Amino acid sequence: xxxxxxxxxxxxxxxxxxxxxxxxxxxxxxxxxxxxxxxxxxxxxxxxxxxxxxxxxxxxxxxxxxxxxxxxxxxxxxxxxxxxxxxxxxxxxxxxxxxxxxxxxxxxxxxxxxxxxxxxxxxxxxxxxxxxxxxxxxxxxxxxxxxxxxxxxxxxxxxxxxxxxxxxxxxxxxxxxxxxxxxxxxxxxxxxxxxxxxxxxxxxxxxxxxxxxxxxxxxxxxxxxxxxxxxxxxxxxxxxxxxxxxxxxxxxxxxxxxxxxxxxxxxxxxxxxxxxxxxxxxxxxxxxxxxxxxxxxxxxxxxxxxxxxxxxxxxxxxxxxxxxxxxxxxxxxxxxxxxxxxxxxxxxxxx
Length: 351
Ligand code: NAD
Fold this sequence. Notes:
The chain is α/β, with parallel strands linked by helices.
């Protein structure tokens, strides 16, 4: 039988993106939905023609635990609630797929990892871009030395969402207690994660400046990640800028432009060689709606990892590392751009 997911939290991303994309998975299926609102859960259970025992509320953990069709719970709620729902799902004996950012603090990430270990279950993070075949191809080319010696990465994840700031899905994103940070943890996390997978390195230090403040979070942020070999990654995120979703990887031989780089559809990469600027070597548009999507591959990666015993491309360790770097960026921005040490084992990482 297919691997059964219960989707927890029926907000914008769950209902507009994840539920419809179960049809693009091969080895996974939607078997239940869990919401604070019983009527909403029943509506989506009907819409997706789920069987009996498929619409639950957050009070129904005992029944969820007893339902053998549910192998995993997919947590798609505001960031600060990820820890609570993840711990509840592990206590019910299920595997967990948790949305990005993994949590709002490193302490919460550690508690979630400890709960996974105690339950003997897997915890995976919803980094869909890791399962984009175009991105995987680019990563493989970069590992093979395509750009030469890496010098500079640039990432921009900018959107203009502030006109919608009173809509429910944006309201909590502009609240530090619920979101952890603002544009940084919501959009900038794609650039931070990409800086790590495109360089195949972890930064050792960061420096950052807040460009715009909204409520008690960053509305826009700019940062630099420093690598041990001298390369740097410059990143920016914004809730109040012209839209831009772009990654660039610049080496001493070639330059790869990925635009869009972390979009839902049609991510594209181009290789420019020898610094001549327009030597157009490959361009790979991928993905028609509802065929071979990132989400189908992402959903199938959890059962594949459980079956093989090999980690997926989106482990909780990945999620925890990004939360560490986000915390360091917030700290630097709050201290006039001071250099914050982020090498593995540095003191800040324990906070
Ligand atoms: P949303 O506000 O539309 O949905 C959140 C849902 O959680 C709502 O239905 C809300 O009722 C529910 N919820 C449960 N407990 C809650 C609580 N204590 N307080 C408030 N709401 C509570 O938000 P969204 O855009 O669907 O984002 C949800 C999560 O998904 C976030 O972590 C976000 O970062 C992530 N996300 C990921 C992607 C991606 O591409 N991977 C895209 C969008 C959102």
